[in-house]
């Protein structure tokens, strides 16, 4: 069974940066479009960004210009560089496929933006 292991979250002040990582134990990782999602308390999980197998990217408006998604196929890892963090970015962050039949969700990594 595919496992997703997210890491890199933490407590950061507004305006700060974090880099999230997600290791994916999928044999076909290199051909999957991968995405980062987040879920804030009391809200539905939302897709933030995705990256195709070829490196093409998409960002939702709320993170465009501040977040950067990338991937390392050799390490089966997808990253999310988050800059200029805002309190409203506080949430649990998850990675998964961008579409189709998703993998079982990992535990996520908590990001808290607060002064």
Instruction: Return the average pLDDT rounded to an integer.
Output: 95
Question: Roughly how much helix do the residues carry, as a percent range?
Answer: under 10%
Overall form: globular
Quaternary structure: single chain
CA(first)-CA(last) distance: 40 Å
Helix/strand-derived category reads: mainly beta
Largest sheet: 6 strands, mixed
Strand content: over 45%
Strand order of the largest sheet: 2-10-9-4-5-6
Radius of gyration: 13 Å
Number of helices: 0
Q: List low-pLDDT spans.
A: none
**Strand count:** 10
Please trace the helix and strand order, writing H or E for each element. EEEEEEEEEE
Strand and helix map with partners:
Layout: E1 4-7, E2 10-12, E3 18-24, E4 34-39, E5 46-51, E6 57-59, E7 67-72, E8 77-82, E9 91-97, E10 109-113
Parallel strand pairs: 2-10
Antiparallel strand pairs: 1-3, 3-8, 4-5, 4-9, 5-6, 7-8, 9-10
